[in-house]
Amino acid sequence: MRTPTQSSPLVSQSTDSDPSHLPLEVRRHPLVGHVEKQLVWRCGLKGSPDHPQPLIIGISGGADSVALLLACSVIASRQSCVALITPIAVHVHHHLRDSADDDATWVADLCLRLGVVCHVEHVQPGEMPGNVAANARKLRYEAMANVAKREQANFIAVAHHGDDQLETMIMALGRGTGLEGFSGMPWTRPMEGHESIHLVRPLLDSRHHECESLCRAGGIVWREDPGNLDPSSARARVRHEIAPVMERLWPDAARRVTATGDLVAAAGIALEKMLGDIFGEVSQRSWVRGELKGLAPAIISAGLRRAALDCAPQVADEIGQKHLGQAAEAIADEEVRPRSFDWPGGIVLCVTSRQVEMKPGG
């Protein structure tokens, strides 16, 4: 057994381990073809036989990321594939639970069997101030982006799927988010601080049970994250208590919400253009009241929320319709007396007879 090392490859490409030796059921699994189609469609990952494009794959050891790695390994082994790629695995060791060392070693061993280069990157979110889960997510993406930069890869593939998307959109609906939240996770997005590197989610309209099916076809018993069962987690409760009810009422809802998310994202782009035309730059803090009065209340609310989140991004879940609706009504009514509204984050919205002004918190 090997001990994972700090930010260094654990496995070199091996001629002894070849994905083409995987069971035929794995190589012909429908998920493999679907992943290839998404990589070509969303990323243009075509490559060439002599120069396949490196693709970073985030792998935790769970069924979803293992299935993504299996699919990409099969794609890379096929001469006839359109997506000519070289998969490079990245496992991020967060040092947050006792089983983390075993998870890293298990992933490294799997990559050795598949002949895939594996990097284990060590981060310490537990030693940072603030929310541990948020810190872990930030450090995880930074670690993968750093490996992508070293490997000259333009894309990082992660294993978020339709079930994750359904949970995300249910939580966004409960929080009362704007279109930017209700659109769910995008298929691709640039990595923060690494504009030439993009995150891609080729499983976004696939299902968790399909990932498990591919793993079982390969005879792989994946690792389980105990955090997924934590009853104190909002996502875990949505996953185990709410999403199953939706699936019973509307079978395969988790796959269809991705299409809804795509449509909402397109609507969000159109709305953002409209808001820019009406409210100006996102940093603008004052407007002529007369120019806003005739607008639909929803448009006024969206424009104010856009500016408020630029003032205080951390209050996205706290600024709801209670705040926005009252302000929109005040802007649209015939009152001329000055009024002010105190919002989360110390934001104050002032409405006078002629002006609407947003004052950021101190």
Descriptors:
seven-stranded mixed sheet; 15% strand; 2 domains; 11 strands; Rossmann fold; 362 residues; single chain; 13 helices; four-stranded antiparallel sheet; Uridine Diphospho-n-acetylenolpyruvylglucosamine Reductase, domain 3; disordered N terminus; alpha/beta
Walk me through this protein's architecture.
The chain has 362 residues and is an alpha/beta fold. The chain is 47% helix and 15% strand. The protein has 13 helices and 11 strands. Strands 1-4-3-2-5-7-6 form a 7-stranded mixed β-sheet, with helices on both faces.
Task: Summarize the entry for a quick read.
The protein has 362 residues and is of the alpha/beta class.
Chain-wise SSE layout:
Blueprint: E1 8-11, H1 24-27, H2 30-43, E2 53-58, H3 63-77, E3 85-93, H4 100-114, E4 117-122, H5 132-150, E5 155-157, H6 162-175, H7 179-182, E6 188-191, E7 194-200, H8 208-217, H9 234-249, H10 253-279, E8 286-288, H11 289-293, H12 297-311, H13 321-332, E9 339-342, E10 348-351, E11 355-359
Parallel strand pairs: 2-3, 2-5, 3-4, 5-7
Antiparallel strand pairs: 1-4, 6-7, 8-11, 9-10, 10-11
Helix pairs in contact: 2-3, 3-8, 6-9, 6-10, 12-13
